[in-house]
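Hi C.,

You asked whether I'd gotten around to modeling the 440-residue construct. I have! Everything is below, sequence then structure, no commentary in between.
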Amino acid sequence: MSTKETLIRKLQDKSAKIGILGMGYVGMPLAVVFAEAGFHVLGIDPDQRKVDTFNKGVSYIQDVPTEKVVHLQKDGRLNITADFAALKEMDAVSICVPTPLRHTGDPDMSFINSALDQLEKYVHKGMIVVLESTTYPGTTRELMVPKLTDQSGLQVGEDIFLCFSPERVDPGREDWTTLNTPKVMGGITQDCAEVATAWYGGAIKTVVPVSSAEAAEMAKLLENTFRMINIGLVNELAIMCERLGVDVWEVIEAAATKPFGFMKFTPGPGLGGHCIPIDPLYLSWKMKEMNYNARFIELASEINTNMPRYVANRVLDAMNDRGKVLKGSKVLVLGVAYKPDIDDVRESPALDVIALLKKKGAYVSYHDPYISQIHHEKEGWRMETVKDVMKAVEESDAVVIVTNHKVYDYKAILDSASFIFDSRNALSKIAKDDPKVVKL
């Protein structure tokens, strides 16, 4: 029996040992799905705090209930360690580490390189490795293949099997999760894809094989570039509508009544999260290496990046219209998560909105029911959420809604505030034509 056939059999009968490198927003939910499907899963993460929290029977990821962690832990199907030596026992490994951008705009591959450095020590015949970290087209073939084969002498597609499968995690969603979101899978060889499909197909409802790792890498970038560009479009539309004296939200709702040829996107104070603000710039960076300028991406990025400044200026102008000066005024920002009802602040535009308001001389505070503390890396400041949101609303000269969490009592906020800038149209149902409310 060939190495491929032996590994597929182990994956199909769930006797294969599964390792997840990186136990964050992507790795933890994936580990849980594999464990619930009957695999024995070991999460490997250098952050000892995650290991300690897990060992206390507590989930540190909002989308993974603590009860589920406790059940899988007691059942012996899911454990976490900070010891990378455990990789030598693994038959299948998913790499789920961050891929941020450097301040210079080029990809920060340090987390992937660090994961591969550890894996290189323990890679062995009969192992399947799937990279899930979003990156530029060519990473799997150009970076992972030589790293895991040059020193080991193992042959891809014969001894070891390497693939790329982009993560599609959307924190806070309950309709589409790791379990039921279709999973694209691209292998370095066809045999690699077959092994990976056998593995993931044993836990995830739908696996979508493509012809190559590059096709899978590019598919992920297309998904988020599509969203980034369309959000940039409606953000620019919001700016144009404000100058024309037209309600952009009314325009979007009207356009959305068309049953074909239109997909609804909404404007906001900027882009946040682990994908949309970052992933398209990986593609743009790669194209620059090939002497091509990705013009749509660059333009959309410019528009979206400027939205926090646009919001801060709109707040300043609106206060001037009311005979108030922003400098020295108390401003309360409601919501700092990058989207509603989650505890994730990565790349949140709220941080830049706050920083810009502070630079204009405002005394800024914030409230978020999910995020107790924030810090601005570039500016160097830290803030803690106010404890009593309604008291803060009453005492503020301006309330700026940046993230429209469902838990807020918007009617009470509207009644108590002296002025609200609503960047998310959160008050649309209760504050139509209210003079104390200005919308994006």
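If it helps when you're writing up: Residues 327 and 362 are 5 Å apart (CA to CA).

Thanks,
B.
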